[in-house]
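Researcher: Here's the sequence for the chain we discussed earlier.
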Amino acid sequence: MASASDKVIITCAVTGSVHTPTMSPHLPLTPEQIAEQAIEAAQAGAAILHLHARDPVDGRPSADPAVFDRFVPRIRDATDAVINITTGGSTRMTLEERLAYPLKAQPEMCSLNMGSMNFTIHPVARKYAEWRYDWEQPYVEGMEDLIFRNTFRDIRHILKVLGEDCGTRFEFECYDVGHLYTLAHFVDAGLIQGPLFIQSIFGILGGMGADPENVVMMKTTADRLFGRGGYRFSVLGAGRHQMSLLTMGAVLGGNVRVGLEDSLYLDRGSLARSNAEQVRKIRRILQELSLEIATPDDARSMLGLKGRDATGI
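Model: Thanks. This is the structure I predict for it:
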């Protein structure tokens, strides 16, 4: 049997803030739906659950701690998965809004985007003649003129108030090679301690393209900056690139992230009916490659997490 360090961590990003209700009837929107799909994803093999909140009435992204409190404790009680709360929220949220629930919950993990960037799916709006809710079309089209903000000062603030003060560790979301150098800057400054968990993201307009060569480039750059034993590499492929890039990342020794935040599909032209469907699919692929799947406790050991009992959830 492989040691924990040789196993593959499956992260599942359950709902996100990019896709809108019109795009899939299976996208979880209410606290009940988010909890149900997150629990099923954990049962299917996801060791880490990456969580956003949505307005229970119309599904728009929400940073309201009261909404998070309607599903996060339920997930905690039903699974032993690592709960990972977004600090990204959406491009329309302030830093204070994005940090409101993470600071309350003090979770084992939070996501942390390693830079300000253009982040958009606005071309997708052309696919839809009708929208389920009035907010969706201007929300998607408006991404063309918005920037996701995470300045060096913002990142330093998050590292202090969540990392240093709360003992939370991070899923460092890197959308381009420059984000790796930003991460290295904070490591060199002594503000981040290993082991690092680097989530390399491919296929988002405004970030790195979903080319196999880019996966290799990110991996070799991280090797150079942090040393091959100094970090954990993970791959996120957006949209139709999900499973192929994840498979490549696993072959390179990395971990993987699935979920309806990242792709609404299971196969070409076939919407995923749940997050768990994607977890089960990547789990089958990994097992066919003779790779073992990390349990939540394996992930805690591999990433040096503080443990569930030290959180405010």
